[in-house]
Amino acid sequence: MVRAATPFIRILDGADAEAFHALRLHGLRSAPEAFGSSYEEERELGIEDVRRRLDDQPNAVFGAFADDVLVGIAGFAMNTKSKQRHKGLLWGVFVDKDWRGHNLGKRLTEAVIDYARGHVDTLHATVMATNISARALYLGLGFTVFGFEKDALRVNDQSYDDELLRLDLR
């Protein structure tokens, strides 16, 4: 049940590890085709590993909170290779189904974009080619398609194609 709260967005830290891990696992279980990671792999992570991931700056994970409950997430990761440090990655965007339609996916993605501007020149993302709403969101925020990967993921013997996206920030 959706409450009347106006969700707010902030960067998560190690203290948010349990809430992040629970919502991430929920996303991986409910939409396995939308993520490169699997529920089975991520559930094996210890909470200390999750804390380290959240505290690993300049990488960042943004969370949308309603009534102090984490209802949406979106991540930013910098490339660690010296020749590729100018590129970042938008990853793991997920909004709980009860909070979809409240513009949280867009607000979370915009938060990642704003943060990325201070760290990289280009932001990359991957979207399942048939995920019309996510694709429209990213393209509407200025991302452009630069590639297509056929059979990018397989979930339960079902093949999924991905579009590779980029957003120039400078």
UniProtKB/TrEMBL annotation:
Keyword presence, GTP-binding: no
* PANTHER family in the cross-refs: ACETYLTRANSFERASE
What molecular functions are annotated in GO for this chain? acyltransferase activity, transferring groups other than amino-acyl groups
Species this protein is from: Phyllobacterium trifolii
Keywords, alphabetical:
Acyltransferase, Ribonucleoprotein, Ribosomal protein, Transferase
Q: What is this protein called?
A: Ribosomal protein S18 acetylase RimI-like enzyme
A Pfam cross-reference name: Acetyltransf_1
List the signal peptide residues.
Answer: none
Specify the N-acetyltransferase domain's residue ranges: 7-170
* This protein's GO CC annotations: ribosome
- Please give the superkingdom of this protein's source: Bacteria
> Is Iron given among the entry's keywords?
no
